[in-house]
Prior knowledge:
The protein is mainly alpha-helical. It has 2 domains: 3-285, Fic-like fold; 287-370, Winged helix-like DNA-binding domain superfamily/Winged helix DNA-binding domain (Arc Repressor Mutant, subunit A, Orthogonal Bundle), CATH 1.10.10. It contains 15 helices and 5 strands. A 3-stranded antiparallel sheet has the order 3-5-4. Helix 1 (34-56) runs parallel beside helix 11 (264-300) and helix 4 runs antiparallel to helix 5 (127-137). The two termini are 41 Å apart. The relative contact order is 0.13.
Amino acid sequence: MKLEEFKSGEYTQEYQYKAFLPNSINSNWIWENSEINILLEEANRKLGEINAFSYLIPDIDMFIKMHIVKEANTSSKIEGTKTEIDEAVMKEDQISPERRDDWLEVHQYIESMNNAILILEKLPLSNRLIRETHRILLSTGRGEKKTPGEFRKSQNWIGERNFSEAKFIPPHNKYINELMGDLEKFINDNNNVPHLVKLALIHYQFETIHPFLDGNGRVGRLLITLYLIANKILTKPALYLSDYLEKNRIEYYHYLNDARNNKIIQWIKFFLKGISITSENTKQTFVRIIELQQEMTILSHTFGSRSEKIQNIINVFYENPILSIKELVMKTEIPDKTIRTLINLMMEKNIVKEMTGYGRNKLFVFDKYLKLF
């Protein structure tokens, strides 16, 4: 079926409102638009470049953790949370009480991503995995009453307070299992559709179905990375589109809505451009990480006999760029008194900064590293 002849679906009359019922998506899609081929080639090339860094950077998983934190923070911010990146890497008891609900949502996102990646080692990318990811995402806090881990059994809508003012009303819940079954087949069938075009269609269809009462945007964005991992396009979860979608939010919603009016081509182009731009940004972050590592290695050697301990502390900051003395002692197994001496030396060299201004319960930030994200 040609993308140029794409028919998105139809509106069904439900009780006092009309809901959009998308057509099935599982098909052998082809197209004539040559710009898609150019954008697809560029996106694949850029993805290949960031995948290469997974092999070039030692201890890559240490840095992937921060990519996941940034994604969790940005994706949650699209949904209205106000946690900043420095707060996202702090412990819950270090966050002011009025900010902890937002902090919790970000950390549930991190947990759901990490758990899904583990499940992918045993299971395909399936509705079972999608529901489990959603269950963790909404397991506590503001989402726990929105049936975590279950497809919705009632109608939802996007925008405003009621059906009459809604910007978009997804399909009635009676169609959800059938639609998600079709989407699961499309995800896993060998239908000769190039992965990134397929992924654009998957994201569009998932957000159009809106299968959960809450968390659809976050799960839909998680699926992008999970698909790339599941199909071995990426060996590490290093690519996240939330930053691109957040910065281009108006266009994002515009092209999704256009696709629901049969204009799918522009959505696919927007999505492929997003893959290329995000891949380039991720590559530049990896380049700067390598440069920072080299700078820190050279700088640590200036500490003479203390250089090995200094490098050990720096490595711990790569895993989490904001830490207390207590956390540093626990992670490095260097005595408290020695840690305090070394941290003071590191502050003199502007490697770390104290960020609280407190006399006690101080927190130290590896600022140069945190700013990369």
